[in-house]
Amino acid sequence: MSITIKNLTLLGTHDFSKIVNDVLRSLNITGNVDSADFDALEIFNEVVGKKIITRLKITVYGTEIFLRKFSVARSDERFGAEVNRLVKKNLYTLLVEGFGLDAIPYGILHGVRPTKIIQRWIDEGFGVTSQGVIDRDKISRRIRNDFLTTRDKAELLTEVSLRQLPIIRTHDDKIISVYVGIPFCRTRCLYCSFPSNVLPADDKVAEFMETLTRDIESAADAIHRYGLKVQTIYVGGGTPTALPEKFFAELMEKVHVNFNGANVEEFTVECGRPDTINAEKISAMKNFNVTRVSVNPQTMHQRTLDIIGRQHSVEDVIRAFNDLRAASDWKINMDLIIGLPGERLADFKATLTEIIALKPDDVTIHSLAIKRGSKLQMRLADELNRVEDFDLPDDAEVRLMAEHAEKILRGEKFLPYYLYRQGYMSGQIENVGWCKRGAEGIYNVQIMGERQTILGVGAAASTKVPDRSAKKILTAFNAKDLTTYLRDIDRYITRREEILSRI
Ligand code: SF4
C-alpha cells in the first residue's frame, strides 16, 4: 500500500529531514504530489533535554487529526544516535497509527549491517550474565523494543549475530582478508548495479591483467612489510570466470602465489554465471587450491532467466554444479533471488526444491533490490514503462517466499550465518546466507562484521582498515570504472599503503 500527500511539511528544533525521509520511504509515503490521497501532513520534531517529542498533523477533506508521542533517550547509548533513533521510532509509530498502515518487518532498522548493533551490545556487556552466558531473549527483546522489528526478525538477527561471534572476534589485528575485483561479465543482468563491464576484446583484458598484476604484487609486498597474515581470499566482481581461459589461469596463479600462504583458511572464487564454468577453469581453480566456489542460478525458471538477461540455461546450472562437485571437495554456494519479474510463490518453491536436490553447502537468498544504476531501475524511472509491466510480486508475496525459504532450509539443516540489508529491497526484508554446519563462508562474515582489515585489489575493490581507538574505518577505494582504474592505479596503491601502515 502506498500513500500520497499533497503538502508535506517538516518542522522542528533540528534538521531531521534525512531520517524523516527514510521513515516515509520505508512506509511508502510520498509527499508534495499534485493528485494525492491526503491534503497535508505536518511533522514536527522537538528535542527537550533527553526527551524527543514528535507531533503529526494530518489533514484530509478539511479535517485535521493531531497525534503526539514522546520517548526518552537511553543513557547507555551515544546521545546523537539516540535522538535519531527516537525520532524515527516516534514517527514510525505515529504514521502507522495515523494512516492505519501495516507494520514492516524491520521497523526502523534501516542500516546495511544490523548484526553489528547486537555484536556491539554484547561487547559492551549487554545481555551477558556474570557467568559469561549470552541471554538471547534479552537481546531479541531489545531489538524489538528499540527498532520495532517483528519478533521473527529480532530472533533471526540475534541468531546470526551470535553465530558470527567466534569468527569476527579477533585478538590479532594483523589477520586480514583479501578481495580481488574482476569487473567483467558476459552480459549485464537486468537488476545489476555492480561495476561489471561486458567482457571486452583480449587486448583490453590483457591491459587489465597487467595493471591488476601490479596491484596484486604491491599488495603482497605491503602484506609482507607490515607482517600481515591472510585468513581468507575472495575473488569476485563481476564474474571472474567470465575471463577467457588463459587469463583466468593467470589470475588464479597470481592470486595463489601472492596471497595463498600458510594462514589462509578459505579461498573463494565467484563463478557466478554457470555458462562461464568449464573443465579448464575448474582445473585452474583446483591447481591453485581454491576451497570455495559460487554458482549462482538466481532462479531455475528459463522464462525468468531470459527476462533478467542471464543468457544461460537451467541445464547450464545443473551441469556446472555437477562438474564442480565431481572435481573437488570444495564448498559450493548457490545464490537465489526472490521477487524476480513474473515469479510467484509457487515458482520460488519449485526453484528451491531443485536447488536443494543438488545439495549445495551454502545457499544465499537475496531479495531483489531495485538499485540505482541498474537497467531495471532506469526502466522503471522511464515514464514509458510502468511497474506493472515487470510483473514484480508484491511485498506480501516476497515475504511469503522468504518464510518458505527459511522453513525449508531449516528443515534441511541449513543455518543462517550472515545477513545484510539494502535500500529498495522487495518485501523490505533481507539477504541471508544459509549454510550447513561448518560451511560458513568466513569472508562473508568478515566483510559484514567490519572488524577485520579487508585489503582490496582490482577494479571497484575497497580496502577497509578498522581503527579501533578512533572507532572508525579507514577506507581506500579503487575506481569502479575500468578506464579510471587502469589510468590511476598508482594513486590507489599509494592511498592503500597509507591506511595499511596504520594497522
Ligand atoms: S552476474 Fe552479477 S555482476 Fe554480472 S551482470 Fe549479473 S548481477 Fe551483475
In short:
The chain has helices spanning 17-26, 79-99, 115-123, 136-147, 151-168, 202-225, 245-259, 279-287, 302-307, 314-327, 345-358, 375-381, 395-411, 442-449, 482-487, 489-500, and strands at residues 3-12, 29-30, 38-48, 51-60, 63-72, 175-182, 184-185, 197-198, 229-237, 266-272, 292-298, 331-338, 362-367, 414-420, 431-436, 453-458, 462-467, 472-477. It folds into three domains: 3-99, Double Stranded RNA Binding Domain (2-Layer Sandwich); 115-168, no CATH class; 175-492, Alpha-Beta Horseshoe (pyruvate-formate lyase- activating enzyme), CATH 3.80.30.20.
Features:
pyruvate-formate lyase- activating enzyme; Double Stranded RNA Binding Domain; 3 domains; binds iron/sulfur cluster; 40% helix; single chain; 503 residues; 18 strands; alpha/beta; 5-stranded mixed sheet
Can you put this structure into words, describing what you see?
With 503 residues, the chain is an alpha/beta fold. The protein folds into three domains: 3-99, Double Stranded RNA Binding Domain (2-Layer Sandwich), CATH 3.30.160; 115-168, no CATH class; 175-492, tm_1862 like domain (pyruvate-formate lyase- activating enzyme). Helices cover 40% and strands 24% of the residues. The protein has helices at 17-26, 79-99, 115-123, 136-147, 151-168, 202-225, 245-259, 279-287, 302-307, 314-327, 345-358, 375-381, 395-411, 442-449, 482-487, 489-500, and strands at 3-12, 29-30, 38-48, 51-60, 63-72, 175-182, 184-185, 197-198, 229-237, 266-272, 292-298, 331-338, 362-367, 414-420, 431-436, 453-458, 462-467, 472-477. A nine-stranded mixed beta sheet has the order 14-15-13-12-11-10-9-6-16, with helices on both faces. A five-stranded mixed beta sheet has the order 2-1-3-4-5, with helices on one face. The chain is globular, with a radius of gyration of 24 Å. The chain starts with a strand and ends with a helix. The structure holds iron/sulfur cluster. Iron/sulfur cluster is lined by residues 185, 188-189, 192, 194, 196, 237-239, 272-273.
